[in-house]
Amino acid sequence: MQSKTYALNDIVEMKKPHACKTNRWQIKRVGMDIRIKCQGCGASVLMQRRDFDKRFKKVLEQGNAAE
Description:
Blueprint: E1 11-14, E2 25-30, E3 33-38, E4 44-48, H1 49-55, E5 56-61
Antiparallel strand pairs: 1-2, 1-5, 2-3, 3-4
């Protein structure tokens, strides 16, 4: 299985779009849980890492971890 690499402040695409029809999310917290923020409407979602890994598709933009 291919290792999925993502980091804090990366912009990622998920397998399914959000209700606001946007599929761009920014990773705000990385740990046992991952918090992502919708770039369309600003909604924030907290999910377990294994659920995030199942729904994660690809990294669109590398974030700046210093923010």
